[in-house]
Amino acid sequence: MAITMSSMAFAANWSKNENNEWRYYDKNGSVITESWAKSNDNWYYVDNNGAIVTDTILEDDDNYYYLDSTGVMIRNSWIKYNDDWYYFGKDGKAYLTKKDEITSSSLKEINGKKYAFDTEGKMLYGWIDASSIAMIDEDDEDGWKEALYYAGDPDDGAITIGWRQISVEDDEESKDYWFFFKPTGKKSLDEKKTINGVTYRFNTEDGHMLSEWAPVATASNIASSSNMTYMNEDGAMVKKGWIWAVPDEDYIQEDYDNDEYSWWYAENSGKIVKNTIKKINGKHYAFDEMGRMLYGLVTTEDGEYVNKSGDTEYIDFTGDQIKESDFEKLYYFSASEEDGSRKDGTVKIELEDDTYNFYFKNNGLAENGYVSKIKKFVKNGIILEAKSDEGKFAGVDAEYDSGYKLNSGNLSYGNEISEGQILINTNGAIVKNKNNVNDGNDVYIFTDKNGVVLYVGDKLKSKKDGSIEIKGKTYEID
Known about the structure:
The chain is mainly β. It is built from three helices and 42 strands. The N and C termini lie far apart (127 Å).
């Protein structure tokens, strides 16, 4: 580049004119004009006066060449000219795009990297509109959404392959989005893609990697909130795992506004589990129709799992409200979201008015009726027990006829206890074969061998033979 014309050695066809300027002559001694001329291994171009053209981009037969300050045609080199970069191949021609659009096959590989050039050989950079073979104008804030390729800054230009974080304008905000570019250089617009064994989700319209919540696309490629997935901070889709998160504002607006966190669980497919009881690592958990893990007392209403009626959680009901409710099914999934697993057997549960003993089957369903396994009466899971502040005993609205039958969860105390009811104590056990037993309030009660109440009232005296007559019937006293 620093060599001067006077020091150049030209072939025999070259000579200087009267002005000491180099000219190229044909065999007849005529000056060659507007043509290529060769000296040794270098090519030059002479203008209409026969002068060597220097330091310019030359267009010739729809091809572009660069002639340096000495006029030499540059080959196999990058050249920056008027702030644009060009690459000239071994034949001196600038790499360029001759098709109507940029395709993966039209990208040029140079030193192991791929580049895009326009129809005039200028290297493209930044976001590239493949259809118009042009760079996206920086004033076009939404242009990146349609662009398929990204080629770095003005002094880089290599087509991006693999991951790249790029700052873009979206919804009038500057956002740093991650994109994945395939080996072809094209931006991934796949709804879901597994990369190095990790699954990621992408916006199918503009290609940016989705983070946190994202609805699954249907066959028509329209996102559906009926199935949700969740991505970690690094974009990896959560599969077969727990998620502690606030839902997206487009999913559950109220929870989003209140910054309400919930536990969620993702299937192996990544979809959030919804409206079911699922066994996870040996324990059972309940999820509502939106996918939030439920805890406390859980029931089903119209086929959906819920833990509250209206705005009131069932755990905030009184014991009587629980007993009087008409549940389709009733389960208990621990007292807090820190656990959430389903319980069975005897469980203490704190309700609005008191702490109660509940009993649940092995499948988690609340028991109802007489439970022979524990020999106690249960209503909607609540073990019926006499309250000590009311009396030592309580009469259950039940009956016995070759077996126990519970009619309701109502309990009676003192003189309100009725003959025919079944008597229980403060542990819920049936009180059998009791004679003149004092309930603690000077109300005396008799029961038979099955715990059926025979008498309630003042204390009775026995006959000399030890028997007692109640309403015309004689009962032997043990």
